[in-house]
Amino acid sequence: MSRVGKKPIPIPQGVNFDFKDGIATASKGPRTLTVPVDKRILVTVNDKTEVVVGRVDDGRDSRALHGLIRSLLSNMVVGLITPWEVKLEIVGVGYQASLKAGVLSLQVGFANNVNLKVPDGVTCDLPDNTHLVIRSADKHAAGQFAANIRSVRPPEPYKGKGIRYAGERVRRKAGKAFGS
Prior knowledge:
Shape: elongated
CATH superfamily of the largest domain: Ribosomal protein L6
Number of helices: 2
Order of helices and strands: EEEEEEHEEEEEEHE
Number of strands: 13
């Protein structure tokens, strides 16, 4: 059984952490992240240097929430110090991406370009036209935007063309065999 929920979360200098009325808030400079906390979970801030997550009752549901809430709070604090990063690769002849005025334009084999607006709090960088780097202090926002981009043209198993996460291995299939 995991004991992750019992491990305290250290609060680095420069990060303000607060818990009121079932909502945990962490902020650093202009960026503020919030996470709603279930009433069965106790969150205490010790000397503004660490956060301890506990349970009100000993039910099965509260045990599952205990570790989840601890992970969400930890991700929130860590993301304010070093933003979460997701890297994507575009594979295919003529497939490319461009970024203009907060709109990501993907040219991935359709008749028209697919335009996606970059959400608030998320930055999108293009080192070249076939690689994307998504960064955000909010781990969920970065991962969700990357998943939205990937869903435009997921990698296909025959030629491997499409948008994939950096380092993702695509299982390839043999095509139809010609001749006897």
